[in-house]
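TASK: fixed-backbone design
INPUT:
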């Protein structure tokens, strides 16, 4: 008996999920009030006793309603089971019944559009800390916009569950939720008139590496050192477990005796995983993303980068690892991934350079080469004295424009500001062409265009005159007779006025690679 108790204690200490289940259980992301992704097969999964038959029934709510679908699965040797609901149109409410040795009933379930919203503090930033919070909270009466807020818990090993629940949007539930996610979801709801599910998994001050699954690092030679670090730590942790188990067994025996004799107690031996910190690679994926995989989603939003400020173009490689890694683990193909280009801000500190931020902007722009990606530019809605600009409404709206155009086929939506395309030297001027000119190029304040620079062969940039000519911009300076390069907004405090006529700002760029 004593050996059995000892075994159970040690087993629970070292396991992420017990393998024996007395009852059918579900991950918390599958619960009452949830929104399930419309128009695609939807995984429903959980745990039961090995070999147990689990039946999942979907029914419209109401008396005497015939089930929409009934699907049965058998739990494998480790207690895992999964079924897939048939593709459903937007609507509800539905009831989901999961029956094995026990019966679970989930109510008020809707089908609609589901988005995962992640990143650091500007994604975590709440509605009650943002612009016009009092009025926005009072007006947040959207019972068909559902919220799931994942607690901030890192882990060195992949976890199966989180402590969270789905809630309808109301003045009581919205204040602490991500403002960017909410305003994005509200824009979609008002345009699509379908239920919206928002999963907020974010943590202020975190780097991109903790959010990335191991498979993301493994696919990129440029990040081989991070991949090796994760592999080595996991291998060493596993190799050291027998010794740790022995130490804990000895501690249990010693502690049991001390409790009986009144002897002094000793602290339990430490078993902290080396990666179980919010800044270590994979830690936040393990604790805050893995538990919701493979919940069916339309796409993901990302607002992060301040903590990777000095990465330059390496940030592009890390974004590839994140995006490709998430797509790999979800197994839904190249789902949409839209992100926010950081706002201007006067970063201080020792050895700070005003060009660190432009290099991150450059890396973020390069991410647009990946399929099904989009970028919301925020150079006009930042705050040079506050790294957390309060205007989250426009951030959410600009992300939603990408989704409306790309995911929901709204051909009438202009979703991006001007993005640099090419340049041509014409005498003592340089002509710039752009993608996403919308209905035309303009200045948002009707003043001459700002933050353009031009350089000749000496590579010394000077302030330039920039003039709109149709869908192009002509750049020149009396000080440069033979120009060869242009930079736009190439400074951390740049807040240019160059936009398209739909009011979306141009992204900073440089034509050189000096």
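OUTPUT:
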């Amino acid at each position: 008996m004593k050996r059995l108790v000892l075994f159970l204690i040690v087993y629970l200490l070292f396991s992420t999920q017990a393998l024996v289940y007395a009852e059918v259980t579900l991950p918390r992301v599958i619960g009452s009030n949830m929104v399930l992704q419309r128009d695609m097969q939807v995984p429903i999964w959980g745990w039961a006793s090995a070999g147990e038959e689990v039946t999942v029934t979907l029914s419209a709510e109401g008396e005497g309603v015939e089930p929409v679908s009934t699907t049965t699965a058998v739990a494998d040797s480790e207690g895992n089971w999964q079924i897939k609901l048939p593709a459903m149109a937007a609507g509800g409410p539905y009831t989901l019944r999961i029956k094995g040795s026990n019966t679970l009933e989930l109510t008020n379930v809707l089908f609609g559009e589901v988005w995962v919203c992640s990143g650091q503090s500007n994604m975590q930033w709440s509605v009650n800390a943002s612009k016009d919070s009092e009025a926005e909270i009072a007006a947040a009466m959207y019972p068909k916009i559902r919220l799931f807020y994942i607690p901030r818990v890192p882990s060195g090993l992949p976890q199966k569950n989180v402590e969270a629940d789905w809630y309808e949007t109301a003045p009581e539930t919205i204040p602490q939720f991500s403002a960017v996610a909410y305003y994005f979801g509200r824009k979609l709801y008002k345009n699509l008139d379908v239920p919206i599910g928002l999963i907020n998994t974010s943590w202020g001050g975190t780097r991109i590496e903790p959010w990335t699954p191991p498979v993301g690092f493994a696919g990129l030679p440029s990040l081989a050192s991070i991949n090796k670090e994760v592999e080595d730590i996991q291998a060493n942790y596993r190799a050291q477990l027998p010794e740790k188990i022995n130490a804990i067994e000895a501690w249990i025996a010693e502690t049991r005796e001390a409790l009986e004799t009144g002897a002094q107690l000793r602290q339990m031996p430490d078993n902290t995983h080396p990666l179980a910190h919010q800044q270590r690679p994979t830690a936040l994926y393990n604790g805050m993303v893995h538990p919701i995989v493979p919940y069916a989603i339309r796409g993901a939003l990302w607002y992060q980068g301040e903590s990777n400020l000095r990465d330059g173009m390496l940030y592009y490689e890390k974004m590839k690892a994140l995006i490709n890694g998430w797509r790999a683990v979800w197994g839904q193909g190249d789902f949409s991934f839209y992100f926010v280009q950081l706002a201007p801000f006067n970063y201080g500190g020792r050895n700070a350079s005003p060009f660190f931020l432009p290099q991150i902007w450059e890396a973020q722009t390069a991410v647009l080469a990946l399929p099904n990606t989009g970028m919301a530019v925020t150079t006009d809605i930042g705050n040079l004295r506050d790294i957390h600009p309060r205007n989250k409404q426009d951030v959410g709206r600009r992300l939603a424009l990408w989704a409306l155009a790309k995911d929901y086929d709204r051909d009438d939506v202009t979703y991006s500001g001007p993005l640099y395309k090419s340049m041509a030297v014409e005498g003592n001027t340089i002509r710039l062409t752009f993608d996403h000119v919308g209905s035309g190029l303009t200045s948002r304040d009707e003043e001459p265009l700002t933050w353009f620079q031009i350089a000749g062969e000496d590579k010394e940039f000077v302030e330039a005159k920039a003039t709109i000519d149709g869908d192009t911009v002509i750049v020149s300076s009396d000080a440069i007779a033979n120009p060869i390069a242009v930079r736009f907004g190439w400074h951390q405090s740049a807040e240019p006025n160059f936009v398209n006529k739909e009011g979306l700002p141009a992204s900073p760029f440089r034509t050189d690679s000096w």
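COMMENT: The two ends are 72 Å apart (CA to CA).
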